[in-house]
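Backbone-to-sequence.
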């Protein structure tokens, strides 16, 4: 599989409260040009949502986010997750993600964590919480001494700030949820979500369509 960081400029971070919303929501994101979808394991419906998306929206690359235990790794992959994202990492969690056989993005927020992952052969990471951890200035400062690391910054990023991140040489994509406003999800306004996804899929370093 192509790296998750290279599928689209934005990785939607999805919180599903009702599993029946999963398929139409995934179809709206894919139609808008965002095929990679991170479903966070924060709700009771998350695994059922991943299962439904994986079964009924084959053009989507569905992954699991907020993965924090080996048990969640196994459950997510069994449900059909094709990649894993964690907010942080430990050696136990890292080994479980590596053994899963699917790509993964362990979370980092410090240079030491990045170096530790590089030592373990991991080059692609989630930078979280991006804005609170130093934003574009911090990532830019990492690119010189640690050029082998590539990131998906997530946390506090919106349509206005995303192009600043995408301009950095060590950023492959950004994670965000601005294309999924809660009122649109609650109203099941899939057309609005598709339109917002299309805008996100067209973002580039200069803020214009790629």
């Amino acid at each position: 599989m192509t790296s998750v960081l290279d599928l689209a400029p934005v990785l939607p971070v999805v919180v599903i409260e009702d599993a029946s919303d999963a398929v139409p929501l995934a179809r709206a994101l894919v139609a808008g040009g965002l095929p990679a979808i991170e479903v966070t394991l924060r709700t009771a419906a998350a695994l059922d949502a991943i299962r439904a998306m994986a079964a009924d929206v084959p053009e989507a690359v569905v992954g699991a986010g907020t993965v924090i235990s080996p048990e969640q790794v196994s459950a997510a992959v069994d449900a059909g997750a094709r990649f894993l994202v964690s907010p942080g990492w430990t050696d136990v969690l890292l080994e479980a993600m590596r053994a899963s056989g699917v790509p993964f993005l362990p979370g980092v927020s410090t240079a030491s964590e990045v170096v530790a992952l590089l030592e373990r052969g991991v080059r692609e990471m989630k930078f979280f919480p991006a804005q609170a951890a130093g934003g574009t200035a911090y990532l830019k400062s990492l690119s010189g001494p640690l050029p082998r690391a590539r990131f998906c910054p997530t946390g506090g990023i919106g349509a206005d700030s995303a192009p600043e991140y995408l301009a950095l040489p060590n950023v492959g994509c950004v994670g965000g949820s601005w294309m999924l406003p809660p009122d649109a999800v609650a109203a099941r306004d899939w057309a609005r979500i598709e339109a917002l996804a299309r805008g996100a899929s067209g973002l580039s370093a200069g803020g214009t369509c790629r």
